[in-house]
Amino acid sequence: MASAFQGIPADAATRLVSAFYDRFPYPGDPLQDGPPPGYNWRWCYRNVVNACTGVLPALKSENLKILDAGCGTGVSTDYLCHLNPGSDILAIDISNQALEVARERLRRSKGASRVKRLRQEQLSLLDLKEDNYFHYINSVGVLHHLRNPEAGLKVLANSLVEGGLIHLFLYADGGRWEIHRIQQALKLMGVGSDDEGLRLGRQLFQELPLKNRLRTHHEQRWSIDTTADPNFADMYLHPQETSYNLSTLFNLVESSGLEFVCFSNPSVWDPSRLLSGELLKMVRNLPVKKQWALVEALDPDISHFEVFLSKGDTSHYSWDDKRSLIDATGIVNPCTWGLPSYSIMGPDLNYMMIEEDELTLIQNLQNSNSGVRFQELTLKEISSLLEAVNVLQSKGILMLSPTHINN
């Protein structure tokens, strides 16, 4: 295959980063036969639209076009194929070696057989030509490795159809303080981004005093994540990296012309996980961005941002009207595990208990044709049905569609 980077590189760091990932194809997840283990709902388009708008998408899966921008060794592409059957997926990366692993991963998992079309191409996202084409873009851990992330996000924005969505993952300054210190120390020692650098980087953690803050932080938080050499190298030896705080994150989004919709990990940004009583009441009276800023200030472990962005305004449907609930249709979230059972695992890998009426509703939906209205299902009484729908929707187990969208 001819090099995708003949002539002038798409970004000043392209050749450098491409060579790094050719040496350390990332992520270092092992290959396996069959579907990937477990599912992250953020790779499922129906879930994403539901999180951003409160309703299921009207778009049929066979018309859905998805971009995996910076697919690496294909872990994300594999999930996208299995969670969005019938769709058209383009997966791109600047590393040929990472793509070789990705192609083998998708061959063994049979992910390509789940979709209408899968393309896996060596390409910088800055060289994308599919203007106004994709409905959903997955961009996890990519833009912060460009010398000019703003240019990258503008290209992704241009690649979206009107109303399209992006899942964006970027490094956060606060929770990477210790990582940045190690990166700085290795650079001061002249340690490179190669196999010898990998050896010396691991040796550094072995030789630091047992109670050294940087060593204990690594051992307690990152040692398992960096067991694979490519993962260790990606964290501590990467030649090009930018990280953000809330202010610079929102400036980046604004510069692209995209709209911030919500965090894809909203529980992290809820002050109630850090405060209670009088202080929490005070914080709840603040504008929401100040609440987020307070969470950022109080939690030094936030190491990344996960956000949904839209091209154009995205409104959120209100389910406050009981009539709209009873007239709605719904599906059971495909990223829910353990059904049928009273003890299940929710979409965020959180264990939860469900009641008898709730389980009955779930089983009725699973046994019915798609598009059946809740009012056509059988429960003891209408109040029980409404309560079950409300609870299951709040837990992320049910995803709903108003009647007027289905008709």
TrEMBL record:
List the CDD domains.
Answer: AdoMet_MTases (cd02440)
> Which PANTHER family does the UniProt record give?
METHYLTRANSFERASE, SLL0487 PROTEIN
Q: Which organism is it from?
A: Paulinella chromatophora
- Signal sequence interval, chain numbering: none
InterPro entries xrefs:
Methyltransf_12 (IPR013217), SAM-dependent_MTases_sf (IPR029063)
- Please give the coiled-coil regions recorded for this protein: none
* Gene3D superfamilies membership: Vaccinia Virus protein VP39 (3.40.50.150)
Give any GO molecular function from the UniProt entry: methyltransferase activity
The protein's name: Possible methyltransferase
| UniProt xrefs under SUPFAM superfamilies | S-adenosyl-L-methionine-dependent methyltransferases
